[in-house]
Amino acid sequence: MKKTFKPSSAKALSENGKPLHGTAAQLRLTSLAGGWDKHQRELMTSAATEAVNQLWLKVVTNYTLVPYRETQAQGQGAHSRTAQSRTCEIPSSANFTSSSSSHGRH
């Protein structure tokens, strides 16, 4: 069976300006980020933030947002022929800005 080869997309510059690729680039980026633990923490925080922002984008795109209040919805039921809008409460802590990921920008 033929092995499939996929080149690494990691790219960086060495201290003397020489281009680095693959594992060498990953090691250099990790070093520049302050070590493995800090690099992984920043990478995972960035990925999680972007995932949450994408989720909220889908929520605000597909749902009608209204302030939360306990009310009985009208027209619900299997026999209702009126179109039902979907509603969702947005927490005041929601952040809709895109993350400033540093991954891949070195």
Task: Give keywords.
two-stranded parallel sheet, disordered C terminus, alpha+beta, 2 helices, 106 residues
Q: If helices are DSSP runs of H or I spanning 4 or more residues, what is the number of helices?
A: 2
Helical residue percent band: 25-40%
- Biggest sheet, open or closed, and with what strands and sense? 2 strands, antiparallel
Q: Give the low-pLDDT segments.
A: 99-106
Supply the helix-strand structural class.
Answer: alpha+beta
Biggest sheet, spatial arrangement of strands = 1-2
Shape: elongated
> β content, as a range?
5-15%
Query: N-to-C terminal Cα separation, in Å?
Result: 36 Å
Overall mean confidence score, pLDDT: 75
Q: How would you classify the quaternary structure?
A: single chain
The H/E string reads EEHHEE
**DSSP strand tally:** 4
Report the C-alpha radius of gyration, rounded: 23 Å
